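Could you show me some protein's one-letter sequence and the numbers that encode its backbone in two labelled lines?

___
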Amino acid sequence: MSVPLSSSKQSTVFLLRLCLLKPQTPAIPYYPLHRHLSTEPNPPPQPPPLDEESLINEAVQLFQALEDGNSSSTQLHQLLFTSSSPSSPGIFRQITRRLASSSQALEFFDYIRSNSPSQELTSLTFPFEAIFELARREPDPQNKLLELYRTSKERNIPLTVNGATLLVRCLGRAERVDEALAVVDDLDPSLKNTHFYNVVVAVLFRSGRFVEALNMLDEMLQPGADCPPNDITGHVVFAALSSREWFGRSISDEEIVGLVSKLLEHGVFPDTFKLMQLITKLCRNKKIGRAWDVLHDVMKAGGTLEAASCNALLMGLGRDGDFERMNTLMTEMKAMDIQPNVVTFGILINHMCKSRRVDEALEVFEKMKGMRSENKCMPNTVTYNCLIDRFCKAGEIERAQELFDQMNKERVFEKMIGGNDGFSVEPNVITYNTLIDGLCKVGRQEEGLTLLHQMRSENKCMPDTVTYNCLIDGFCKAGKIERAQELFDQMNKERVFPNVITLTTLVGGDAVTFSILINAFCNANNIDKAMELFNQMSKDGCSPGAIVFYRLISGLSKAGRMDDASSVVSMLKEAGFCLDIVRYNVLIGGFCRKNKLDKAYEMLKEMEQAGVKSDIVTYNTLISYLSKAGNFATAHRVMRNMIKEGLVPTVVTYRVLIRAYCLNGKIEEAMKIFRDMSSSSKVPPDNNEVELALSLMDEMKVEGVRPNVTTYNAMFKGLREKNFLEKAFDLMDRMVEEACNPDYITMDVLTEWLPAVGETGKLKKFVNGYEVSVSTS
C-alpha cells in the first residue's frame, strides 16, 4: 500500500514531471533525482511518440473538447509544442483542415499564434490557407473569403499562392472581378506561378475583361517569362477564342492568329476539338483566309492534326466555293497521313452538289465505294442523300431513283454479310422525303404516293409531317384537291399530326399542312372547305399563324364574303398579328366590289395609323372603283395624290380610266388619256406591261376610240424592246387600215428594227401603204 504524499511533495512531483516532459540540458541527471523523491520504486514508462496521423486526430479532439469547455489547454499545449512533437506548419495546416468550420479554424489559428514558441509569420500562412479551403465549402463563400482576406491583412499574415488562387477563382465565379484583381495585385510577385496566371486569365475571359486577359497573357508569352504558358493556358485561351460570344468586344483576325502563333512558339497546341471550334468560328465569320492560316500554323509547328479540324476548314472553303484550296488541303492531308473520314468525303460531295459539279461529286462517291475492300469511308446514308437531293433539284429524277435503288441493294448486301461496321446505307425518312418531293415537283405525285406506301409496308421508317406535306402540296398544285384531302385525313388516322412543327413557315409558326390545304381550297374557290379546315386547326390545338390568316382573308375577299373576311381580320389581330399591304389591298378591293366605300376608307385610315404606306395597287383599286362609278373628279384627285406620293401611273391605271370613260360614252376624254399614256415621259416604251397595253388597244378598238400616230409610236418602241414582231406587223396593218400615216419617229423605229431582223420587204410594203400581212401572191 502506497503512502499519500503531502501537498508540498505533490507539487514537487508535478514540477519534476514537467521537467521530464521538457528537459533543460542533458548535463543535469534528472532521473536519479526523481528516483530519490518519488514514492514509486521505478519511474513511469514514457508513452511512445505519436505518429503524424495520430497526432493530428488527437489534436483535433483536444481542441474541440477545449472549445466545448470540457478540457484545459495544458494537454493540447504539451501535444503541439513539446520538442518531441512532430509539429510543423504542415501539421498545423492538416489539423486546421479537419476542423468543423472556418470560424473554429480561425480560433485554432489564434491559439497557435498565441502559444507557438516561434512567431515567424511565414509559418502561419499554411494554416490560414486551410481556413480559406474550409470557407470555400460553406454558405456565402465569397463574403466569408473576403472577410478572411481582410483578417489576414489586419494580422499581417501573407497569402500563399494557393490561398490567393482559391480566392480569385471563387470571386471570379461570383463576378466580383475587381475584388479578385485586388488580390492579384497584393500577392507577392515571387509567389506567382503559371497555375495562378491561368486561373486569373480564365476569370478575366469569362467575365468579358478581354483587354486585361490579353495583357496578362502577353506577360506570360514574353521571352524568358517566369510564368510561361502551359497546356492549361492553351485550353483556357483556345476555349475563349472559339466561343461564340465576346460580350460585344470584337477581336481582330490579326489578334487571333497572332495569339495562336505565340502559343505555338511556346509549344502550346490546341486540342482537336478546340482547333475545330476555332476554325469553325472563323469560317462562320467569313474569315476563311484566317482559318486557313491558323490550321497551317499548327501544321508547321508540328502540332497533331486530325480529320475533324481539316473538315471544319473544308466546310468553310466549300461554302466559299473555293474548290482549288479544298483540293490542296486534301493533298496535304494525304501527305501528312491524316486519314479522311466519311464526314470529309461527305463535305466534298455536298458542296460539289450545291455548286452543280455533280460529275466531280460522283467521282468522289465512286472513290468511296472503291474503299469497301479496305473497310474505310464507304458512302453512308448522308452521302447518298446529298446526291439524291441534287438530282431531284435538277429534275433528274431517274438518276435519283438509281441511287435509291443502289441504297436498297447495299442494305440487302449488308444483311447478307452480317453488319456494316458503322457504314449504314439504310434509306431514312430524309431519303424518302427528298425523293417524294422531287417526284411531286415534276408532276409524278402517284409515284410519290407509292413511295409513301413502301415506307409504311416495309416498316423501315415511318412517314412524318414533311412526307405528307410534300404529297399534299403536289396534289394541290396539280388541282387534285380531293386526293390531298384524303392524305390529310390519313395523316390524322396515323396520328401524324399536322401541328407538329417539323416544317413551319417563319412567320407565325403555323403548320404547313393546314396552310397548304387552306391555300388550295381558296384557289379552287372552295371557301367553305377552307373555313372548315381553319376551324379544325383550333380544335387540334394548332394556332394559326400569319400566313394562314392572310390566305384565308384573300380567299374570302375574292369570294365577296367580306363579313367573314372582317371576322378573320379580328381573329388575326387578337392573335397578335398585323395586316400587311397585300391584305389591306385585297380588303379594300373586296369592299369596293361590294360598293362599301365607307369600309374601304376605314381600311385606308387604319393603314395610315398602322404606318403601312399605300402602293400602286391601292391607288389603282380606288381609281378603278371611282371611275366605274362615274366619279371621275375623285378618281383624278386620287391619281394626283398618287403622283404626289412619288408613284408613277401604270398601264393598269390608264386602262381603268379609259375603259370607264368609254363605258360612260366620253370617247374624247378617253382618247386624251390614251395619248397621255403613250407619252414616253409617263409610260416608258420599255415597261414590262406591253401585253396589257396591246389588250387595251384592242378594247379601244371595240369602244370605237382611234389611236393616233403618237400612240402607235409608243407601242412600236415597246414592241421593239421585246422583239414582238408579229404584234408589230398587226399594228402596222391597223395603221394602214385606219389611214393613220406614219411620221418620222415611226420610220426611225421601224427602219432601225425590221431590216436588222430580215424583214425589209415588210417595211417596204408598209411605206407603200399595203398591209404587211398580205401574201405576195
